[in-house]
């Protein structure tokens, strides 16, 4: 089904927007994780909540944007939580901790669960 004046089927534009948001969100995580500490954005949330939420939202966006590839999204984003943390060793102002990576990975798992459930509900 097409909308008037649109060349994309009704849901197609939603998937395109979700894909752009997912990749921009991942780029934001890479930036916040790897830049020198003085350039890192700050907000009002506790740092662990901030880490978990960033990965949860990013993974949620990827699972919604690529519903058939949700397992791949889960594996890649959980692994990237550990990979990005390890890459902090390259920056003299950053310090990598396994606990930080675990919090990020837990956020990614939560995002997968929420995204998977949302995809299941919308298919009905």
Automatic annotation (TrEMBL):
It comes from the Bacteria. The chain crosses the membrane at residues 20-39, 60-83. The lineage of its organism: Bacteria, Pseudomonadati, Pseudomonadota, Alphaproteobacteria, Hyphomicrobiales. Keywords: Membrane, Transmembrane, Transmembrane helix. This is Putative integral membrane protein.
């Amino acid at each position: 089904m097409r909308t008037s004046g649109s060349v994309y089927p009704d849901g197609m534009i939603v998937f395109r927007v979700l894909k752009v948001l997912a990749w921009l969100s991942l780029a934001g995580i890479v930036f916040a994780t790897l830049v020198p500490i003085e350039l890192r954005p700050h907000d009002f949330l506790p740092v662990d909540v901030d880490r978990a939420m960033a990965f949860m939202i990013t993974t949620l966006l990827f699972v919604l944007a690529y519903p058939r590839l949700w397992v791949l999204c889960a594996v890649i984003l959980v692994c990237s939580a550990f990979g990005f943390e390890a890459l902090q060793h390259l920056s003299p102002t950053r310090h990598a901790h396994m606990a930080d990576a675990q919090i990020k990975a837990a956020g990614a798992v939560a995002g997968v669960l929420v995204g998977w459930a949302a995809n299941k509900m919308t298919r009905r």
